[in-house]
Known about the structure:
By secondary structure, this protein is mostly helical. 77% of the residues lie in helices and 0% in strands.
Amino acid sequence: MTDIERAIESKSAAGPRARAWRRGGAARTLALKLVVGLTTIWLASVVVFAAVEVLPQDPARAALGLDSSAAQRAAFRAAHGLNDPAVIRYLRWAGGIIRGDFGSSIVSGRPIAEELWPRFYYTAILALCAVALSVIVALPLALVAARRPGGPFDATANLLTLTLHAVPEFALGLVLAWLLAAKFALLPLVSTGIQDGDLSALVLPVLTLGLLGISYVYRFSRLGVIEAGQAPFVRSAALRGVSPRRVTIHHVLPVASSAVINVVALQVVYLLGGVVVVENVFSYPGLGTLLITGVENNDLPVIEAVAVVISALLVVINMFADSVVVLLNPRMRGGSR
């Protein structure tokens, strides 16, 4: 066999090995992210439990009322294992969560999961609709503005989105409620009707969160598109006479996809923070109103359950976004050569 033949054979054999190594690199990277994500969820549960532990609240007094006697409160604490060491109570609580058992409300005595999961469903609908609205509006704005950075359209879009970003959630919600519900009576003022299938009750909370999210998605997507547009192969395609629309769809968007995915994931995190405020402005039956009700009633198990579910949701969303970016971007695969 000649040297040329051996070189060709070696190169053909190296191709599958290289592809297998890249696939293995992606798998190792995703496995590492999974371990980090699970560790983060565990640490979040520890922090949530510890934070509730240091609150100056007596669960027995919250459950039995201010008129309860010391003997009644002592019996309640003994029956619910509240006298056990904190480590034992954490392990019992965390073990229950792994099994899907979040315990019972100390106020109503009902299992928390019965109310938690329907509320989670409504919050998920609200967050997904708000994200969809913000992306549908902000991404085209970012694509147009990034074509001429610093131009009139870019300056106007920056001004409008920064103005939206400066408005607090409750203020925008109250303005929309006054305008669309009180003044013109186009939408219901409160959103409790969503439980009966009234989709119009979803509009005001979605508009509030979606409009606030436009600023976030626009600013980061604009930067990602500008950076992608400055890539050498993108500029080369433009110089070859490829139409701007084709350059955007086939060259800019694939490169900017990592930035867009990350900013959407970060926006979901941002929106989940605003959900607590917006849900209470419109009496929307989601996790935010459940959390506030738990705080008002000193219902510590409910507070713990909602806090750990939201924390886990944030971690899962970021893990999913990171995984998609790893699959789309070979340079982020730790094992690639």
